[in-house]
Amino acid sequence: xxxxxxxxxxxRHGITTLIDSTFATPINQRPAExxxxxxxxxxxxxxxxxxxxxxxxxAGRRDLIDNIxxxxxxxxxxxxxxxxxxxxxxxxTLAVRGQQQNExxxxxxxxxxxxxxxxxVHYPFLxxxxxxxxxxxxxxxxxxxxxxxxxxSGDDARRIAESLNLFTLAPSLGGVDSxxxxxxxxxxxxxxxxxxxxxxxxxxxIRLSVGIENADDLIADLEQALAAVKPAGQKVEVG
Length: 239
What we know:
239 residues, alpha/beta, three-stranded mixed β-sheet
């Protein structure tokens, strides 16, 4: 998404803009610099970084934040002291974790893009990604989340996910540990197959949240798991 264009259109029509920047984090992208009014994060993910707290974060102009603060005060959502301490602890290492996850995810994506058993890879900093130029203009790094489609069936995708040793089978993201999930069975399970097809969420799609482990170990784990499916010999598409 072109943040400058979205911001310009919204300002012409007096519309307040809000973006969920959880996947990018402030380390990789700062939407306010492109004119976005409010930036939201699931602090549960990268800000915390250790999969041990639940919180939400929103930042923006003082007048907008004051209104949100008043609503929050009336409705009552408030972090407990221990969760707040965990969040502050996680923020201290956000930059170094983010850098390592950027590097690891790019290496994993490049490996998968070359693999004969992989149909397509979705990661914005891959050279052949159709929006790579825009991503590099707006972002300092590609983030730690990527997805790929395997050649074969949904059963093949599940077989790969279940064969991984270093990637834990879980639907969250952003922690120091690498995770793997099958979207049609988790995040998109309640969406109709017809709508999933329009969204490009297939039974063969696997999502990875790449952690801070050694990249060579993660790649070796994926390589052994991909051995669970037969090669189809088709060229990989990047998008």
